[in-house]
Amino acid sequence: MRIRTTAVAATAVLGSLALLTGCGAADMTKQASPFANAQGSKTVTLSVQSWVGAQSNVAVAQYLLEHKLGYRVDTVQVDEVPAWDALSQGRVDAILEDWGHPDQEKRYVTDKKTIAHGGDLGVTGHIGWFVPTYLVKQHPDITDWKNLNKYASLFRTPESGGKGQLMDGSPSYVTNDKALVKNLKLDYQVVFAGSEAAQITQMKQFAKEKKPFLTYWYSPQWLFKKVPMTEVQLPPYKEGCDADLAKITCAYPHTPLQKYLNADFAKSGGRAAAFLKKFRWTTEDQNEVSLMIAQQKLSPADAAKKWVDSHPSVWKQWLS
Fold first, then answer.
1. Cβ 259 vs Cβ 94: under 8 Å
2. Strand, coil or helix: what is 199?
3. Is the pLDDT of residue 303 over 50?
4. Based on CB atoms within 10 Å of each CB, which residue in 113, 117, 289, 313 is the most buried?
5. CA neighbours closer than 13 Å in the CB half-sphere of residue 117
6. Are 131 and 147 in contact (CB under 8 A)?
7. pTM: predicted TM-score of the whole model, two decimal places
């Protein structure tokens, strides 16, 4: 999703992980925990983004910090870019899933040195445009962006103003889609569902009725298991091709997702900081927890416990 990040839709999850949404939400910076960066106390504050994959990271990290290391864990929802400010100021101690913000990284990690790199999460993220696979079987050439105008009428909705609809999630997310539609001269209108949850509801309804849809979506994401989708091939991504959003014509990159810690916490956070630096799992691990939260309706804590109980060989390495 992003090196201009984009992620994906979502709505707020106030201090808990119960909502399943996409990248970004209201700026909750001022509601940060009083326990963040609390020197000498066994407390940790984690930034939790509103998309379900990020919630899964936090759920498992929180469970292990509380049940295996004896920490009190507080969670705070902060939008993507404001989360960097909150982390720099010590309002939160860690971000466990960042999709690539090179400008923020330069400012806080390289220049100010108030944020420290916490290592790879182990998951590679990717944003793209997707159509349902059942539509590809009817129109195999629809996966080439050059043919999208030919099929624009298939994607018209009352909201798209006579053009084809490209469904995005929340307008709070950083997305290249409006510029891409304009610069590639596509007869489409970007329409925001409002949140990841709303976007998922629409996609599931379209799939149930076997209707066409074109959507901004991302991986990893549990919905692919329920609604098989195929990516539309945009002009290939090359390093720097997204530097000027006004001129962008390329696809989104594949981004190894990263963790970041408050610099003071990284030095003085003891076993908690060491644990978070070692926290690294696979896309399959994350999707397993996400599916339990989103589809099976387990609470994040119950989903985390179930995963922890069945994967001791994975998480014990993070505690060593």
1. yes
2. helix
3. yes
4. 289
5. 13
6. no
7. 0.79
